């Protein structure tokens, strides 16, 4: 009987040792998996931190651009207010009836200037000369086409010809 107790104890110790060995092997395997996961997470965290830094830099740039756009908008609104004030001071209908040639020249000159500025803004040279028939906005002549003559050189067939020789 004593020997069967010894055998049971020895078998129990061997079984416990075997179970302990397998348990330790599993713990080591779990620990290795955890180390690999930690390494992957460190890469993910570094990537996330780099992304956050990039986003913060972009946000700062966007704020600067927004401030610049706001300043440009205020200038444009002030310019628009100035133009509205000028238009309110001038009676364009009366001026068109009274001084049609002068108004046409001013409008044509301003339009040509605007087109040149638009050409410059879009990468062109913007130095295209004014057509010879165009009256510059600063000119104050009374003829409608700006060339100093009294004949009608316009391509608009609806415009009545006015004889200024009388």
Task: Describe, in short, the structure shown.
This protein is mostly helical and 166 residues long. It has helices spanning 2-89, 92-98, 100-121.
Fold topology:
Elements: H1 2-89, H2 92-98, H3 100-121
Helix pairs in contact: 2-3
Describe the protein:
The protein has 166 residues and is mainly alpha-helical. It folds into two domains: 2-89; 96-149. Helix content is 70%, strand content 0%. The chain has three helices and no strands. The protein has helices at 2-89, 92-98, 100-121. It is rod-shaped.
Count of individual domains: 2
Number of DSSP helical runs = 3
Query: Percent of residues in beta strands?
Result: under 5%
Average pLDDT rating: 80
Residue stretches low in confidence (pLDDT < 50, at least 5 long) are 139-166
Our Rg estimate from Cα atoms comes to 44 Å
Count every beta strand, where a strand is a DSSP E run of 2 or more residues.
Answer: 0
Task: Tell me the distance between the termini.
Answer: 152 Å
Order of helices and strands: HHH
Helix percentage = over 70%
List keywords for this structure.
single chain, about 170 residues, rod-shaped, 3 helices, mainly alpha, disordered C terminus
């Amino acid at each position: 009987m004593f020997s069967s107790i010894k055998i049971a104890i020895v078998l129990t110790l061997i079984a416990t040792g075997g179970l302990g060995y397998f348990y330790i092997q599993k713990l080591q395997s779990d620990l290795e998996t955890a180390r690999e996961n930690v390494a992957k997470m460190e890469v993910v965290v570094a990537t996330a931190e780099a992304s956050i830094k990039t986003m913060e830099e972009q946000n700062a740039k966007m704020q600067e651009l927004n401030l610049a756009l706001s300043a440009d908008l205020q200038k444009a609104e002030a310019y628009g207010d100035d133009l509205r004030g000028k238009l309110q001071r001038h009676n364009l209908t009366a001026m068109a009836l009274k001084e049609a040639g002068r108004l046409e020249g001013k409008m044509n000159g301003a339009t040509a200037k605007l087109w040149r500025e638009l050409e410059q803004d879009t990468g062109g040279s913007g130095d295209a000369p004014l057509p010879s028939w165009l009256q510059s906005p600063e000119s104050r002549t009374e003829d409608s086409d700006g060339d100093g003559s009294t004949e009608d050189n316009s391509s608009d067939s609806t415009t009545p010809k006015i004889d200024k020789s009388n």
